[in-house]
Amino acid sequence: MDDFSPEYSELESFNFSSGKKLKSLPVEYFTIGTPITDDQGHINNAIIFLHGWGGDCGSIRRIAEIIGPKKPLDTKKFFIISITTLGSPNSASPSVMNLGREFPDYSIEDMVKFQIDFLKSKFNIIHVKGIIGNSMGGFEALTWAAKYPEYMDFLISLVSTYKVSGHNYALFKFMNHIIKSDHEYNNGNYSKPLKKSLALANESMYPFGLSKKYYYSLNNNEIDNYMEEMGNEAIEEWDANDIVYRNNASTSYDIEDIISNIEAKTLIVAINQDQYFPPNLDAIPMSEKIKNSEIIIYDSEMGHIGTHEIIKIENELENFLKEFK
Fold first, then answer.
1. Which residue from 154, 149, 197, 155 is spatially nearest to 174, judged by alpha carbons?
2. Centroid of chain to Cα 153
3. Which residue, among 282, 274, 252, 237, has the nearest Cα to 173 in the 3D structure?
4. pLDDT at 2
5. Does residue 302 contact residue 309 with C-beta atoms inside 8 Å?
6. CA gap 115, 111 in Å, rounded
7. What is the rounded distance in angstroms from the CA atom of residue 6 to the CA atom of residue 62?
8. Which pLDDT does position 238 carry in this prediction?
9. Cα-based distances in Å from 218 to 27, 233, 303
10. DSSP state, 84?
11. Helices 240-251 & 108-123 angle (0-180, nearest 10)
């Protein structure tokens, strides 16, 4: 996807579930494919891609190998929209809107509503062909399907889950504790970037993104270098309030009580070596809770980020999607 170039728009206003309201919210997005409209002018072949915790609309490049003419996500038949979600850089977030702690708290459901509002206002979309959610994007996709079951025809959950618990919950809390313990944090009213705590928070995630086998293939100097790279990345790109808010939304995510509401045909994709969402603890139990669901589990030494190797299941994806083309 060499021609990737994001676009920018604005939501006139947005009502948060807390009751608070903001105006003029920026939205970053990317589109590829061919829009087809019905007699009422509604685009009826849209597929929405939802990125993971540290991503943005450019994260769609992770699955670029299955996007294009005559591929599972055929750009001659589908109009694919990737949106940088609420709370992530370049769309509305505490840092982007320069509101800091004045930015309203938000939930995963708020992130869903943000995108529904954007799709309606920008593209006049009221129903989509499908939604694909990767990791945290899966939280949104599954919530979307459970809360608005008639909004989509199909759902694909990539390396995700129906609730944040266990070590994922602990990791999000730990990251926030690191940030909030910074003596310059000042309850989110800091005057300069919290470089040290941001670096430590990102480094805390390092041991989980890839497979255990992969980490054992590295020598200690390589691990030191990769951790330093992650720390520097956080210093350059992260904002403390953005992270705290996003982690709060993630730790409150739990749709176990409503997941059975999902009506869309569902494909659950998991990776055996995923340390965040091991299939036996997340994907398999989730498949048993969603009627009309299928599950695919494959191997990747890349672990959680093994969706970079999604081409491994190209045939299975084509088989799942063929009825929607």
1. 197
2. 19
3. 252
4. 72
5. yes
6. 7
7. 15
8. 96
9. 39, 20, 15
10. P
11. 110
Residue keyed to tokens 């618990």 = 165
Name the residue among 134, 28, 139, 119 with its Cα closest to residue 79.
119
What token pair was written down for 118? 């954007």
What is the token pair recorded at 175?
């990251």
Give the closest residue to 111 by CA, choosing from 281, 246, 2, 229: 246
* Distance of alpha carbon 82 from alpha carbon 33, whole angstroms: 11
How far out from the chain centre does Cα 288 lie?
23
How many percent of the chain have pLDDT more than 70?
100
Cβ count within 10 A of residue 320: 20
Instruction: For each of the domains in the chain, give its residue range(s) and CATH number, in order of start.
Output: 7-163+253-324 (3.40.50.1820), 167-250 (1.10.1740.110)
Q: What is the mean pLDDT of residues 87-103?
A: 97
- From the number of C-beta atoms within 10 Å of its C-beta (0-12, 13-18, 19+), residue 222 rates as exposed
Quickly count helices (H) and strands (E) in the chain: 9, 8
| Residue 104, C-beta contacts closer than 8 angstroms, at least 6 positions apart | 16, 18, 20, 22
Per the CB < 8 A criterion, the answer to whether 196 and 238 are in contact is no
The predicted-structure confidence for 40-69, as pLDDT tens digits, reads as follows: 889 999 999 999 999 999 999 999 999 999
Q: Which residues contact 42 (CB under 8 A, 6 or more apart)?
A: 124, 125, 126, 127
Read off the pLDDT of each residue in 113-121 and give the average, rounded to a whole number. 98
| pTM (predicted TM-score) | 0.97
Give the max Cα distance, the chain: 61
Bridge-partner residues for 270, per DSSP?
297
User: Looking at the annotation, which residues are catalytic?
Assistant: 135, 274, 304
